[in-house]
Amino acid sequence: MKKIDIAIIVLAIVLCGVLLFMSFSGEILETGNWGLSFPVEGQPPAGPASVSDLKKFDGYYLGNTEEKVIYLTFDAGYENGCTPEILDALKKHHAPAAFFLVGNYIEKNADLVRRMVEEGHIVGNHTMHHPDMSKLSDFDAFSKELSDLEDLYQKTTGQQMQKFYRPPQGIYSQENLEMAQKMGYKTIFWSLAYADWDNNKQPSHAHAMEKLTGRIHNGAVVLLHATSKTNAEILDELLTKWEEMGYRFAPLTELPQGDPVI
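The structure assignment produced for this chain is given below.
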């Protein structure tokens, strides 16, 4: 065999080895927006990343699927008068929740933030300025968005922030998950949400109840926006309905710590 033929064969073997190595050592998760598909109503949905893959980075979108339990979460980038009514409904039902807040919310609504804490709710980290965190590849820049909010929260409440993080707009990357994990955070996505964020196009009560009761499931991490007038108006009725369906409400601190069950 000619030397040139041997060289070509060796080069081909090396190239195959490199490609194989890249396929096993590359990113587990692709950068993207969190979204869901519901192949079966009333059953846990499929997300763009699996429960087991997220768990490698202390990420969650489902809780304990062997129990009729719901983990309530609210995102809030600003306050428009709906949160007091939401807190009233949660208090009535003894339902713990997590409020993922940004910097300007805490700065402008210190009394409400303190009320959340006093009534037993978690205040989670939604970043200081709500940027697309997947564009922050530098750890210092990424960590500053979270640590600045931690500092503001501690100044406002006198307490340390619990380590729960929700990426703004649900945009994530494996690199972000790794950096949040390095900071001691659990990254919290969701397994149930609906179009409630547009104040100029609020869903009807009937539509909201249909979506939120029809797609509820064991271990649901529910995302609602605290800015939604509809959510504030239906929350008491919604929590009552979920209780009638046999569900209880649990804080994020009760998310399963062991191997995921799906």
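Interim note for the steering committee: DSSP finds nine helices and ten strands in the chain. The mean pLDDT is 90.
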